[in-house]
C-alpha cells in the first residue's frame, strides 16, 4: 500500500500558508494589509508565514510607497504556482483514494 500523504508538500501544512496561497493563486498580487484583513491575522503571524513562503521561493515581494507609507505586495512565482497545484492534485488524489 502506498503512503497517501507522501506527495503532500509540508510547506502547505499550515492553514495560514494554505490560505495565503489560495488567495494569491486567483489574484495577480495582494498587499500585506489585504492578506491580513482577509485571513484575520496579526502582523507578526502573517509576516512569519509569508517569510516561509518567500524562502521557499513560492512568493515574490514588491515594496513601494504610497505617499510616505510603505506598500508591500506579494505575487506567486511560477515555482509557487506549480508547487501549490501539485499539492492540490495530491490532496485530491488522496481523498479519492480513501
UniProtKB/TrEMBL annotation:
Domain Winged helix DNA-binding residue range list: 16-95
One Pfam match: HTH_34
Descriptive protein name: Transcriptional regulator, MarR/EmrR family
Amino acid at each position: 500500500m502506498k503512503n497517501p500523504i507522501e506527495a503532500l508538500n509540508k510547506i502547505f501544512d499550515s492553514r495560514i500558508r494554505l490560505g495565503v496561497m489560495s488567495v494569491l493563486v486567483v489574484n495577480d498580487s495582494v498587499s500585506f494589509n489585504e492578506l491580513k484583513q482577509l485571513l484575520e491575522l496579526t502582523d507578526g503571524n502573517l509576516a512569519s508565514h509569508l517569510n516561509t513562503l518567500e524562502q521557499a521561493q513560492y512568493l515574490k515581494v514588491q515594496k513601494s510607497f504610497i505617499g510616505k507609507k510603505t506598500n508591500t505586495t506579494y505575487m506567486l512565482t511560477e515555482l509557487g504556482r506549480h508547487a501549490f497545484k501539485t499539492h492540490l492534485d495530491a490532496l485530491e488524489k488522496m481523498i479519492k483514494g480513501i
